[in-house]
Predict the structure.
Amino acid sequence: MSDKKDMSNMTASEISYRKFLKNLGVTTHQEIEKLINKKIADGELSPNANLDITAIIKIDELGLNHSISSSLLLPGKND
């Protein structure tokens, strides 16, 4: 059995969380991809290199300061 909830069974707050996180993911992906492609084209980054990344979510009213760090594999010349 799946832990996924059908949208019709979600509360309004759960839906708002999901919408925010989806928007965050989609828009951040687009911005990162655009900048990486430009930097590779300009010779400022090397294809197939690794790029360290840290994402920070801050919500002052909750006292939340959450960060996630990782390494991204940049696209190759034929990607």
In short: The chain has one domain: 9-73. Residues 40 and 46 are 6 Å apart (CA to CA). The mean pLDDT is 92. The first helix runs from residue 12 to 41.
